[in-house]
Amino acid sequence: MQIRPILSALRRHRLAAMLIGLEIALACAVLCNACFLIANRVRDMHIQSGVDEASLASLTISGYEDRQSVDVNARVTAGLRAIPGVQSVSVLNSIPFGERRGSMGITTDAEGLHRGGVIEFYLGGPGSAEALGFHLVAGRALQAEDYQSFSGLMPSFAPVLVTRELAEHLWPGEDPLGKSIWSKPLHYQVVGVIDRLVVPAPALWGAGTGGWSAFLPAQPGPGLSGSYLIKAAPADIRRVLRDARETIAKVAPDAVLDLQGTQTIGDLRESFFQQDRTMTGILVAVIASLLLVTALGIVGLASFWVQQRRKQIGIRRAIGATRQDILSYFQTENFLIVSGGILVGMVLAFGLNLALMKFYELPRLPLYYLPMGAVSLWLLGQLAVLGPALRAAAVPPVVATRSV
């Protein structure tokens, strides 16, 4: 089929073709960026925490003074350990998908010249590392003597476990064992590397920083109290947590139970990503609505052109054009309009992505989203024009030429 007659016909219907092209361009820009946002949110929702989520629950209390922390820790841990089905109870300042309580900027030198960014310190008492269940890939496990008492917010010097992701960020291509982390006046030495341990709020950190975590051993006390990690069999964990809420009312009646922070890790994950699931649903609805409107626009325009060109179609049929020729004409015409809209839409897609990067700190749109969006819109255009094109191909020559 020759393209020149199609282009000549489009020039005579320039305004209508431009409107459909702009609609396609807008659909391309929104489709590429919306799919990119959906993919990022789905990836975030399926992030691996690195801990034994199915067996863990967090319990948080407040409302007591620092001088009572040792006594409160003793009463609470003893009461929770007495619950049938409890495998372990330990004190831990933060938990994956919970509140951030140990975020701190670090350097890799004592002078503070080589900044390492902001990382999350999990400050845990004896038994907490084992309860979390993360996997040690290098170095040694923590020993009993590593858990020492401290004053202030964190120990001033201690051995530390870092994640593989953090180690690669701080010392790319080097052995992290024996290296130091500084946050004056705090100084920690790396004794082990763990495979994975996400920060408490991974989706709120920058891209590629969700695993910048370190585990710091410490004895419970004024700086480490009120937040407890409970481990039980996956089948028992919900029942154990219900019993734990009742136990707190008995062993620590002067404390206030934080219901938001007293959940299983699975429930904390569900709560944390609730907004992401809602936003994903909204974006899917936006994409579906936009594609529907675009398809209806193509159908409406093609149907209008078929009605206007009945005489032209009949003449072509009378001089030998087949049904397939008429069908191909409208499909090719649609392909050219959609292609022009896609070219403009790709530019708009990058512009929209730059705005999202500037105001919402999103990563750059990967190039492979553009051909994926283009193929989707080409298929949509061909499906949308198929009905009007088939009706055009079905026009009998004798009916179309009676008025000639």
Automatic annotation (TrEMBL):
This is ABC transporter permease. Residues 285-394 form the ABC3 transporter permease C-terminal domain. Keywords: Cell membrane, Membrane, Transmembrane, Transmembrane helix. InterPro entries: ABC3_permease_C, Macrolide_Exporter_MacB. It comes from the Bacteria. It is found in: Cell membrane. PANTHER family: ABC TRANSPORTER PERMEASE YTRF (PTHR30572:SF4), MEMBRANE COMPONENT OF TRANSPORTER-RELATED (PTHR30572). The chain crosses the membrane at residues 15-39, 282-306, 335-356, 368-390. Belongs to the ABC-4 integral membrane protein family. It is a multi-pass membrane protein. The keyword Transmembrane applies. Its main location: membrane.
